[in-house]
User: What shape does this take?
Amino acid sequence: MKKEEAIFRDFLKTKGLKLTKPRRIILNAVFSTHEHFNVDALYDIIRKRHKNVSRATIYRTMPLMIEAGLIKQALRCQAKDHYEHIFGHKSHLHFICDKCGKIVEKESKQVEKIIKDLAETEGFEIREFNVGAKGLCADCRS
Amino acid sequence: MKKEEAIFRDFLKTKGLKLTKPRRIILNAVFSTHEHFNVDALYDIIRKRHKNVSRATIYRTMPLMIEAGLIKQALRCQAKDHYEHIFGHKSHLHFICDKCGKIVEKESKQVEKIIKDLAETEGFEIREFNVGAKGLCADCRS
DNA sequence: TTTAATTTGAGAATCATTCGCAAAAATAAG
DNA sequence: CTTATTTTTGCGAATGATTCTCAAATTAAA
Ligand SMILES: [Mn+2]
Ligand SMILES: [Mn+2]
Ligand SMILES: [Zn+2]
Ligand SMILES: [Zn+2]
Assistant: This one.
């Protein structure tokens, strides 16, 4: 059993929930990608594998995987929520190109540290960072 | 004429657009608040003043005011886009409480500087920062 | 196998935002 | 002050992502 599956199973158990077949299929789809994804993308991946899971179930599963600490809401693009892995990935910030939609990722321990400190002085408990900027990517500028 | 109106008028002129009555009403509503606002909130403010502007027009005006540099998309809350002033306000980051919805603002020149530098090395031109975190506010933790 | 609790799929319902279009307003010209 | 041209507006319909409802299916326990 893959590590993320163990994490998910354990999380579900603490909530009195079950690691069902559809949930396992969704989990595999989620961790088969290495980019940002949205519900429709997962739906397509699952269909291509000749599995069948309804969109409703995918929608219902995202918050569970977020609460389990496996994924997070990364950004909103084309009116859709996009997610990304947390498990096995470093935190980073996003530069989103308004013109072509491209997303550039950058790491910065510093930014995160500063935000953490600010949160602490405020008594705020951070669950999910959301750091980035919108604008024009290098290609679209020229 | 207030400064923001002059800015808006000048911006519109460069685009061959007109500073109409509805646009002026919306502008006043926008700058009558000093908090984050959404389209419905503006609609209510306008109605209370016995003016009448359709939601469609408000929706159409937001992108104009953004491009004019007067406001920005601040965050998304309860499935609605929320905006805030840029003109006359310092840039800041948002801590959003998942439980009660409260938003705490914090300034940090440092964070902005680091992000700017990262963008520069990437050749990315920033138009709008989006920095913050979601979690639990001090009140909701206890 | 029986039972009780949870989950699922299908489609309907929501709801913010966008669109289409004919009527109104703004601006320029005469 | 007209007339002509362009832009804008309001209305309501359309869109589309997400959520909800609920009966049937699955799961795990007894
Ligand atoms: Mn990312
Ligand atoms: Mn703010
Ligand atoms: Zn681009
Ligand atoms: Zn709170």
Notes: Residues B 36, 74, 84, 92, 94, 105 surround manganese (II) ion (ligand 2) (CB under 6 Å). The two ends of chain A are 48 Å apart (CA to CA). Helices of chain A lie at 3-14, 21-32, 39-48, 55-67, 109-122, 138-141.
